[in-house]
């Protein structure tokens, strides 16, 4: 057993400071284990949100040594243990207590996105037919566990507080899943451009780099949506084509 | 909306709890792009040493007007005033230059390395104001697909240069042959093609815009091919940037007599 120091952000929602905890760590431990150990042995009031401890519920999002990560999927042997491990709540959302943040803004954003609107059923029994090749692309987006790490790292939200004008990478992925769905007939391009702020994304790929589900957020969701917005609003040839063909 | 009360919210430039050397990538990108821009600008203004035998530097291709035998319409026309600096490269280099400038990969990379927006993921920025690509001037980046059309035309012209680089003229006439320069020109076209044909806009145009792509087998295949190159777009962007500068250097050195081309057969 080795000793390690964890520098954890403590707060009651306003203000706050780092507090150092020394604790024993052993092989195979993840950051969430260490936080639980500290909670059990030294700080019973330490607030931390978690649920599955398997990287599937998306509850334990935090910033470990400055990078947005899931606490339950960050093994201690990936971190330099000769110096304190800092654990902070996500920066892009209001703090509630210690490591717990209020992510409800995300649920409000989701409500603003136009719902799935399938075409008329293909068969008399009210069912549809789809080709696997057509749903391959959107299946990647459905892996999302709504951990909001991508929202947290995105500088448009994190640094520039554009929460009112930009829906963030998570909801661009969600919009892409609907917009590219072979059965869907809804048009979300106007919203993307005018209300959901897709133009704010400057393709830093930070969201893709932190996604624990390895969703290729920037290249497979955001850029293809940007291109669809270009078709609709910026490309004169494509506008002319639509004018003449009515498509 | 207020974020969590944390130590560096809207903090100073470079503030972060990151422990890794986050600045290394941005610093390397900064050096790489800056070195390329300086070299390409210098080379474009030279206006000489850009051909050697059948070889033509990619910075000067197509040579619309110029003094070399590669010039399509002959020497510089009289209507271009003398006080305007002239070089055949200046007539064409804006197209591949803007193509790269508006490329999605390069955009994301130079916003970080040259504009610190952000300096690296989860690192504090120097400015609070932010417009992104939502308004002028960066909204102009949406012109990228038109530059992609031009870039693809350039690929054909550069491939034609490779063909011409296989015909060497000496006192006895014109003969088929391969020199080291021919191979360098050919590799350069392959790398440039791998980059340009993996373009995100092309990926959209060949099939990405369709939701039921399986109904269009040819476009489906094309979409898969472009997606395959697109997955390594960053790698091809760098390899082709390096190769295009290297090809110019090679032709330049041969032309200046500093290096003699190796004629393989
Ligand atoms: S790529 Fe776009 S959405 Fe993703 S983190 Fe960067 S700016 Fe935000
Ligand atoms: S896209 Fe990835 S990072 Fe973003 S919320 Fe979903 S799983 Fe988390
Ligand atoms: S506890 Fe469920 S993702 Fe970490
Ligand atoms: S996106 Fe990189 S070349 Fe078009």
Helix segment count of chain A? 10
What name does CATH use for the topology of the largest domain in chain A? Fumarate Reductase Iron-sulfur Protein, Chain B, domain 2
Helical content of chain B, roughly? 40-55%
Strand % of chain B is under 5%
Distance between the termini of chain A: 67 Å
Number of strands of chain B: 4
Q: List the strand order in the largest sheet of chain B.
A: 1-2
CATH H-tier superfamily of the largest domain in chain A: Alpha-helical ferredoxin
**Unreliable residue stretches of chain B:** none
Through-space gap between termini of chain B: 70 Å
Task: Kindly summarize this structure in a few lines.
Chain A is of the alpha+beta class and 247 residues long. Chain A has helices at 31-41, 104-112, 132-141, 149-153, 155-158, 168-179, 189-194, 206-210, 217-233, 236-245; strands spanning 2-10, 17-25, 61-64, 67-70, 85-88, 95-97, 100-101. In chain A, helix 3 packs antiparallel against helix 6 and helix 6 packs across helix 9 (217-233).
Report on the architecture of this protein.
The complex is a heterodimer of chains A (247) and B (265). With 247 residues, chain A is α+β, with helices and mostly antiparallel strands. Chain A has a five-stranded mixed beta sheet with strand order 2-1-5-3-4. Chain A has a two-stranded antiparallel ribbon with strand order 6-7. Chain A contains ten helices and seven strands. Chain B is mainly alpha-helical and 265 residues long. Chain B has one domain. The longest helix of chain B is centred in the first third of the chain and has 24 residues, at 23-46. Chains A and B meet through helix 5, helix 8 and helix 9 of A and helix 4 and helix 7 of B. The complex binds iron/sulfur cluster (2 copies) and FE2/S2 (inorganic) cluster (FES) (2 copies). One FE2/S2 (inorganic) cluster binds next to helix 4, helix 5 and helix 7 of chain B.
């Amino acid at each position: 057993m080795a000793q390690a120091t964890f520098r954890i952000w403590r707060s009651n929602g306003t203000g706050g400071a780092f507090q150092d905890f020394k604790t024993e760590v052993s092989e195979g431990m993840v950051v969430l284990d260490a936080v639980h150990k500290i909670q059990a042995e030294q700080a019973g009031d330490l607030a931390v949100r978690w649920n599955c401890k398997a990287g599937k519920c998306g509850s334990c999002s935090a910033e470990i040594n400055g990078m947005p990560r899931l606490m339950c999927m960050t093994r201690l042997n990936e971190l330099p243990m000769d110096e304190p491990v800092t654990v902070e709540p996500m920066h892009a959302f209001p703090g509630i207590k210690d490591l717990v943040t209020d992510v409800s803004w995300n649920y409000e954003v989701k409500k603003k996105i136009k719902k799935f609107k399938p075409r008329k059923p293909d068969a008399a029994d009210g069912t549809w037919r789809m080709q696997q090749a057509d749903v391959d692309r959107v299946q990647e987006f459905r892996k999302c566990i709504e951990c909001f790490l991508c929202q947290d790292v995105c500088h448009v939200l994190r640094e520039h507080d554009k929460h009112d004008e930009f829906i963030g990478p998570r909801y661009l992925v969600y919009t892409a899943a609907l917009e590219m769905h072979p059965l869907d007939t809804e048009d979300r391009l106007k919203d993307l451009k005018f209300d959901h702020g897709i133009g704010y994304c400057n393709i830093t790929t930070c969201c893709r780099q932190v996604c624990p589900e390895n969703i290729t957020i920037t290249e497979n969701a955001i850029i293809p949506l940007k291109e669809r917005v270009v078709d609709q609003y910026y490309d004169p040839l494509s506008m002319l084509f639509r004018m003449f063909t009515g498509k | 909306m207020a974020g969590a009360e944390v130590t560096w919210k809207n903090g100073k430039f470079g503030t972060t709890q990151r422990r890794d050397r986050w600045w290394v990538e941005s610093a390397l990108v900064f050096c790489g792009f800056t070195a390329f821009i300086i070299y390409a600008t210098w080379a474009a203004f030279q206006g000489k040493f850009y051909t050697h035998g059948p070889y033509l530097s990619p910075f000067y291709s197509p040579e619309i007007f110029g003094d070399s035998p590669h010039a399509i319409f002959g020497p510089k026309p009289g209507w271009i005033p003398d006080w305007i600096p002239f070089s055949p490269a200046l007539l064409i280099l804006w197209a591949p230059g803007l193509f790269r400038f508006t490329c999605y990969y390069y955009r994301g990379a130079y916003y970080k390395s040259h504009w610190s927006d952000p300096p690296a993921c989860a690192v504090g920025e120097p400015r609070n104001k932010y417009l992104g690509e939502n308004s002028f001037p960066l909204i102009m980046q949406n012109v990228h697909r038109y530059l992609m059309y031009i870039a693809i035309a350039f690929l054909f012209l550069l491939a034609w240069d490779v063909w011409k680089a296989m015909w060497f003229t000496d006192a006895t006439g014109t003969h088929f042959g391969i020199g080291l320069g021919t191979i360098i020109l050919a590799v350069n076209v392959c790398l440039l093609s791998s980059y340009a044909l993996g373009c995100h806009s092309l990926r959209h145009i060949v099939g990405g815009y369709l939701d039921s792509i399986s109904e269009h087998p040819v476009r489906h295949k094309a979409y898969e091919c472009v997606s395959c190159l697109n997955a390594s777009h960053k790698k091809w962007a760098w390899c082709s940037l390096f190769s295009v500068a290297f090809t110019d250097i090679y032709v330049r050195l041969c032309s200046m007599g500093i290096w003699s081309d190796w004629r393989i057969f």
